[in-house]
Amino acid sequence: MNFHTGIKLCSGRFLDLSGPALVMAVINCNDDSFYPASRSKADEAAEKALAAQACGAAIIDFGGESSRPGSSYIDAGEELRRVIPAIEMFRKKSNLPISVDTRKAVVAAAALDAGADIVNDISALGDDPQMAGLCARRGAAVVLVHMKGTPAGMRDTPVYSDVTAEVRDFLAEAADRAVRAGIDRNRIIIDPGFGFNKNTADNLVLLARLAEIRLTGYPLLAGLSRKTFIGEITGRPIQNRLAGTMAANAAAIWAGADIIRLHDVQEGVDLARTLYEIKKKEKFGT
After folding, report:
1. Torsion of CA 92, 189, 123, 177, to 10 degrees
2. Which of 199, 204, 187 is nearest to 159 (CA)?
3. Which of these is catalytic: 39, 261, 279, 280?
């Protein structure tokens, strides 16, 4: 059962968190994301988003810049060319909430103009000094992600003395900064950043203690889809990590994740609905 009632969106709508965990569908508008099957151009990306909606996705997350290990910033103009047409095409056909995965305020602004509702920033609004103010002015919901370092240096994993405490404290401070910048508390989502400069042991500890992150009081998003640590556990390549992904997401939902970010939408929706029904029996009995 979910703790939070929902998230206010700039469109005036409300993202309801009172039922099963919501699925955020990953739509990569690029040619270099770590999972090749997820890569697409604008028209194809919009069609993939519509297919994800048909499978039960509650949010579509469009991203033009890869954050895979070793990746680096792309030019803002290139990111705009990749992601904005896809958002515009999808918005013409759907009213489903849209998230834009970007670290750049200029891209976020254009995405909001095109119909996006949420800014998903892996730097927790830290890379671009204009981002927090933009989101506050526009009333955008935000996803604040924990990432120690940058994607370019992701293979040089930092050492944590207590990864859960560090992630929890970072996200609590990032949320406080967002509130001070004028972003409504009811528009903030936190993401512990699985796989972002964390090794397999770090990710497993974080997943096992995820309930501690949730105690910050903000809705929790878990992005576990086909991550490297799942491959290290199972010995499977990216294309064969569906079962491991579902196991990790089941653990996240059981610990209280409100949103799961996935490439495999139908499987994620089925997982969330099934766990929700089990949880109801746990709480209410018969």
Report:
1. 120
2. 199
3. 261
Question: Model-level pTM?
Answer: 0.92
Task: Pull the structure tokens for residue 255.
Answer: 């610990």
Secondary structure element (H or E) that encloses residue 110, with its range: helix 105-114
Q: What is the pLDDT of residue 2?
A: 43
More confident residue, 171 or 150: 171
Alpha-carbon gap, residue 21 to 224, rounded angstroms: 14
Whole-angstrom Cα distance, residue 182 to residue 275?
Answer: 36
Please say if 41 is a catalytic residue.
no
Give the separation between CA 8 and CA 31, rounded to whole angstroms: 32
Q: 128 is written with which tokens?
A: 């671009």
User: Within 10 Å of residue 91's Cβ, how many Cβ atoms?
Assistant: 17
Q: Which amino acid is at 88?
A: E
Gyration radius from the chain CA atoms:
17
Task: Provide the 3-class DSSP secondary structure of residue 195.
Answer: coil
How many whole angstroms separate alpha carbon 63 and alpha carbon 72? 14
Query: Is 283 an active-site residue?
Result: no
Res 68: pLDDT: 54
Taking the CB of residue 169, how many other CB atoms lie within 10 A of it? 13
Q: Each residue of 124-155: pLDDT tens digit?
A: 999 999 999 999 999 999 999 999 866 655 55
Q: Of these residues, 227, 236, 273, 280, which one is catalytic?
A: 227
User: Looking at residue 10, what is its pLDDT?
Assistant: 84
Tokens representing 148 are 């120690």
Give SS3 for 95.
coil
